Amino acid sequence: MASMLPEDIKKEVKEKFKISLKNPVNITYFTMELECQSCQQTHELLNEIVSLSDLISLSVFKFDIDKEKVKEYNIEKIPAIVIMSDKDYGIRFYGLPSGYEFASLLEAVIMVSKQETGLKEESLQKIAKLSKPVHIQVFVTNTCPYCTNAVQFAHKLAFVSDNIRADEIDASEFVTLSQKYNVSSVPKVVINEKITFVGALPEDSFVNEVLAAEKL
Predict the structure, then answer these.
(1) 55-58 contacts: CB < 8 A, separation 24 or more?
(2) 148 and 55 both lie in a single domain
(3) 131 and 180 inside one domain
(4) What pLDDT, on a 0 to 100 scale, did the predictor assign at position 153?
């Protein structure tokens, strides 16, 4: 079976992990053998990532069988990837994270391992005031160079707040969902079904949109 990652990329990622990873990370993966166009590829990719560091482990659950786990992690579609430690931070990937989104996946793993986001102190103070659940959906394509910034901001906010869940969603894989939210260009961000915007906003603007969504 052909490797998902070229050998030079594997070597590069292995070195990156060696330098960057500090604490254990668990990748929790939800899959299904039938009726899932990219589940097998996603599983193979995750296996290769896990093989590059002893600090990364992989837990696999069947979407159609492991109903309690599906409910616990609030998984509604597959393939679904949860990046966590012993805590679930609400960081989700839906679809095969290839192309530019492979970088988003790596950054999520490193963030959880290092327990650092690099967010501004002002942003942290604002997000700490959230008192209601906020659901951020970031629609992307794997060929979009600007999408990674939007995804990473969303995941950073989820990491620092128990009230935030942030989903990266492959718009081309989840076509019906993309149609529901009128996704014609990416990144498109949908917050609590009420606020939407297109493009990778600066950190301050992104945080303000999240705060505005909570008030609606």
Answers:
(1) 55/17, 55/21, 55/22, 55/23, 55/24, 55/25, 55/113, 56/17, 56/21, 56/24, 56/25, 56/26, 56/27, 56/109, 57/24, 57/25, 57/26, 57/27, 58/26, 58/27, 58/28, 58/29
(2) no
(3) yes
(4) 97
What's residue 82's pLDDT? Answer: 98
| In-domain check, residue 148 | yes
In a domain? residue 2: no
Report pLDDT digits (tens) over 80-135.
Answer: 999 999 999 999 999 999 999 999 999 999 999 999 999 999 999 999 999 999 99
Question: pLDDT-based confidence at 33, cuts 50/70/90?
Answer: confident
Residues 154 and 64 both lie in one domain: no
Domain that holds residue 109: 7-87+96-114
* Number of separate domains in the chain: 2
CATH number at residue 156: 3.40.30.10
User: Which has more confidence, 2 or 199?
Assistant: 199
